[in-house]
Amino acid sequence: MRFADPIYLLFLLIIPLLVFYYFKRFKKPTIKYPELESIKLSFNQQKTKIKEWLPVILRLVVLSFIIFALARPQSGQKGEEILTKGVDIILCLDTSTSMRAEDFKPNNRFYVAKKSAEEFVKGRKHDRIGVVVFSALAFTQCPLTLDYGALIDFLDKTEIGMTQTDGTAIGSAIVTSLNRLRESNAKSKIIILLTDGRNNTGEIDPITAAKTASAIDVKIYTIGAGVPGGALYPVDDPIFGRRYVKIQDDLDEATLSEIAHITEGAYFRATSPEGLKNIFKQIDKMEKTEIKSKEFTEYTELYLYFLFPALLLFLAELFLKNTVLRRIP
Hints:
Layout: E1 2-3, H1 14-26, H2 36-70, E2 73-82, E3 87-94, H3 109-122, E4 128-134, E5 138-145, H4 148-157, H5 170-181, E6 188-195, H6 206-215, E7 218-225, E8 231-237, E9 241-247, H7 253-262, E10 266-270, H8 273-286, E11 293-301, H9 304-321
Parallel strand pairs: 3-4, 3-6, 6-7, 7-10
Antiparallel strand pairs: 1-2, 2-11, 4-5, 8-9
Helix pairs in contact: 1-2, 2-9, 3-4, 3-8, 5-6, 6-7
C-alpha cells in the first residue's frame, strides 16, 4: 500500500497536541478523604471521566481517519505488457506401442519423453505451447496456450495407445501440428517431433509434409528415441504374467534428418534419459527469443475504507452526546 498525497499525513501531528489539550482540560484537583463517601465519589468521578473522554476519543479517531483518507491510500497491482511476440511451439509425441520399450531405464521411452517435455515447458516464458499425439492417427491433445499449468495436466494425461490405433504416421502428425500453427503470427513457429520408429501408415508422406512446413516458415526439430541395436519390450501374458522380448531398432534416422534439414531445424538421437533431457535443453537454448516488456502498476483507491468509518464514528459521537452521554448544564 502507498499514499498518493503523503503530505497530508503531517496533520497527524495535531493528534498528540489535541490529546494533551483535552487531558489538561479534564484534569481537576482532588482531595482524598478516608470516608466511604469518598469512595462512592471516586466511582462517580470515573463514570464522569468515561463520559467526558469517550466523545473525545471518537472525535480523534474520526480526525485520524479523515487525515488518512486525504492522503489517498492506494493498493498497487503490478503488471507486464509484452511488446514483442514469443515462440509458438507444438510438442508432437509418438504414442505407438513401441514406445513401451524399456531401454531408458528405469522407465520406458514414453515416460521419459513425457517428463522431459514437461521440464521443457516449465523452462519457457511468454511462449504458446500445444501438444499433438500420434500413432496411426494424429490429434491435438492441447491447443496452443500460455496456461502452462493446464498444458502440463494435458501432458500428464497422455499415454501409449491413446489414439486407439497402432502404427507411426509421421506425415499426419506434422500436418496436424501445422494446422495449429498456420494462422499463428508468432515471431517463430516450431514443431518438436519425437518418435522411435518410421512412417508406416497414413496418407501423407513425411517429406511432403516437411516441405509444406517450410513453405509457411515452420521449423521442425526431430528427435529419434531408442538405443541402437534394439530394446526389451514388455509383453503381458494372462497366464505366465509379464515377460520381455527384444524388438529391433526401427528408427528411420534418414527421414527424420531430412525433415529437419528441409525446415532448417535439427535432428537429435536420444539414447538415454539424460540424453533426451539435454536435447530438450539444447532446443530450449536455440529457440530463446528476447522478449521486450514494459512493467506497470495499477493502483486502486482505498480512501473510502477510511472515509466511511470516519462518517459512522462521527454519527455515533453525535448520537451518544445527545443520548446516554448527554450533559445537563
